[in-house]
C-alpha cells in the first residue's frame, strides 16, 4: 500500500514538473516566435480552448478574439498551433495569392475520425462541403475542385 502511494506521488510530481517545464520553455529560452501573429497566451495541454469554451458557440469566441487581436491572429487548440484569418482580403491572399506557402494545415483527430483517415474522403455533398473547410488550400486544390470554372 505504501509502495503504491509512493509511486502515485512520484508520478504526480513528474507530471507537474513536465507541465511546468513545457509552460516556461518558450518564455525563457530566448527563442523568437518568428512571424507568428499575436494571440492569446495558451495554457498547457488545453491551449486556448478555455477561451472558446466561454461562449455559446466557438465562432462567437473567434469573433471576440478578432476584435481583440485583429483580422489575423494565432491561437493554440490543444497542442496544435493555428492561425485564424477573418477578413476577406486576407483570406484571399492566404488561400490564393500565397496558397503554396500556407498549404499545410493540421489534421485534427476529430476530422480524422469523421472522414475515416482522409480529410478529402467525401460520401455526400454535405461531407464534400465540410471537407473543403479542412482540406489543404493551395491554388492546385482550387483548380482540382473546379472552383475557377
Major β-sheet profile:
2 strands, antiparallel
The SSE order reads HHHEEHHHH
State which percent range the strand residues make up.
5-15%
- Euclidean distance between termini CA atoms: 71 Å
Signal peptide: 1-23
Family: Belongs to the cytochrome P450 family.
Keywords: Monooxygenase, Oxidoreductase, Signal
InterPro entries: Cyt_P450 (IPR001128), Cyt_P450_E_grp-I (IPR002401), Cyt_P450_sf (IPR036396)
Account of the 3D structure:
The chain is mainly alpha-helical. It has 2 domains: 1-31; 34-144, no CATH class. Helix content is 49%, strand content 8%. It has 7 helices and 2 strands. The protein has helices spanning 2-28, 49-52, 58-69, 88-97, 109-114, 125-132, 139-144; strands at 72-77, 80-85. It has a two-stranded antiparallel sheet with strand order 1-2. Strand 1 and strand 2 form a beta hairpin. The radius of gyration is 20 Å and the shape is elongated. 6% of the residues are buried. Residues 28-32 and 121-127 have low confidence and may be disordered. Keywords: Monooxygenase, Oxidoreductase, Signal. It comes from Coptotermes formosanus. This is Cytochrome P450. It holds the Pfam family p450. GO terms for molecular function: heme binding; iron ion binding; monooxygenase activity; oxidoreductase activity, acting on paired donors, with incorporation or reduction of molecular oxygen.
